[in-house]
Fold this sequence. Notes:
It is rod-shaped and about 100 Å long. It has one domain. It is mainly alpha-helical. It has 8 helices and no strands.
Amino acid sequence: xxxxxxxxxxxxxxxxxxxxxxxxxxxxxxxxxxxxxxxxxxxxxxxxxxxxxxxxxxxxxxxxxxxxxxxxxxxxxxxxxxxxxxxxxxxxxxxxxxxxxxxxxxxxxxxxxxxxxxxxxxxxxxxxxxxxxxxxxxxxxxxxxxxxxxxxxxxxxxxxxxxxxxxxxxxxxxxxxxxxxxxxxxxxxxxxxxxxxxxxxxxxxxxxxxxxxxxxxxxxxxxxxxxxxxxxxxxxxxx
Length: 239
């Protein structure tokens, strides 16, 4: 092809057809420019396709991670509801002057229990390292920030730890033969425990904290379900 162009250009110059040569030269420049533009467009298209494939990969990883976190939240909701029920049962026994039964020992322990799920953020942190701009859907990008940059759950858990270690744990030695995170706890003196305003205050606080924690986990679960549906719709549109 290049040899053909050179022969044609040489023939025009030899025959003193300068005006036609200029026209040919302009045409040749235009062809070169068009070739460069086509090459750039093809390169851009290839880069866009690579980014699109990478975006799909990241969305699938996020989807899997979010699904796992929903399972952790489901467990947290279930466990904290059980803890709240135990607190309510013990408080009901104490306030209604019902007599002690060793079946309560399990609930004495469970009433002091709470479950904070270890939610994984690896997929989101990996995406952040590459750049959130790789997610082309603005709504998904915003929803990711709303979920993963929201740290109130962690702060609430820290507050619960501080309350338990600073207020509750030092008093348990006066009321129970031992403290067990799971299992059963036997009161040293049930009648004394029944008359203790401090213990009842702790139970009410535990009920309040579990209720707030359950509500937060349910909100987190719902927002993640919404995000998974958004991701699934986006992935379907990429097919």
